[in-house]
# Entry
Amino acid sequence: MRIMAVADVFDAVSAKRCYRDAMPLHECYKIIMNGRCVDFDPDIVDAFMMDQDKVEEIYYNSGFRER
# Structure
């Protein structure tokens, strides 16, 4: 559940929705960091932030998002 909380929020804010555009990735990361120790497990956030290169690789190679 703790991992899914971070992944779900990242997906929600980084994806285009019918009522708003996708947020830039630096803003998505800021939201995750602001939730550290408040909404999210700090160890999960730290691991997520350490692997930003992998996150972005998956993000852009998903076929749903453009660079």
User: Anything to note?
Assistant: Helices lie at 2-14, 25-34, 42-50, 52-61. The two ends are 29 Å apart (CA to CA).
